[in-house]
């Protein structure tokens, strides 16, 4: 395997909430595609120092490191080279960004991000920018209680809700999911179910159990936009990467009432697995909204929880 090239990159936001993209020169590796500004970490540099230097050299801006947070770390292997992308979210900077090396720049809305072509290694970055930081998962409820749970979870700060209702027949789950979509238009609602049924129902966001994940061989088997999966060990995590799901949950991070005999990963193991994973990863199991910052500091996308939103 070729030597790993360590790259510091930035998702830079202006005061209007727009994101800065740069167009790669056609003569470069992956030329003609859009990218997140940044560059190689030189020997002896720390990552944030390299990021500040590269953005000054490339864009003529000085970033505020106190308003710079880790977004995702992406190890990626191309046929001709391997890269480790250390990506940060930059929310404050001084100066007006311009292409000091002649590269075209563009400020874009996050909602338009899917309209741009990126190098393959950038797909997890795009997903990390578009995915929420907190997902509420429904517990087993009576059929008439799900609407109230979703409303309560959203009011408590959840930006997405996963319908997990395995006690119901699948047809009833799909009817309930359709009802929730109508009740909460524009909200990010995920169905925990099968690829085949999701495709038949034209569902755009699903989450697979670890068993269903291990049966999946290709990402394009699912026709919708968002495909997540549950992982409990490294074998499942690696399979999720090979298949190319959009995000994973790692669990249990801590002891849970629902699975009292399961050995928790702990935050140290969670951080270790996430650091070597090219997918946005949520901490799940014994976590609450108070653990959001801890998950992000460990390299996670955020948290997914059940009891925290009950």
Quaternary state of this entry equals single chain
How many domains make up the 3D coordinates? 2
CATH class of the largest domain: Alpha Beta
Tell me the distance between the termini. 48 Å
Could you estimate the helical fraction of the residues in percent? 25-40%
- For CATH, the homologous superfamily of the largest domain is named as Aldolase class I
Helices and strands, in N-to-C order? EEEEHEEEEEHEHEHEHEHEHEHEHE
Using the CA coordinates, give the radius of gyration: 20 Å
CATH fold-level assignment of the largest domain:
TIM Barrel
The CATH architecture of the largest domain is Alpha-Beta Barrel
Number of helices in the DSSP assignment:
9
How would a textbook summarize the main sheet?
Answer: 8 strands, parallel, barrel
Q: Could you say which overall geometry the principal axes of the C-alpha atoms support? A: globular
Strand order of the largest sheet: 10-11-12-13-14-15-16-17
Q: Assign the structural class, choosing from mainly alpha, mainly beta, alpha/beta, alpha+beta, or little secondary structure.
A: alpha/beta
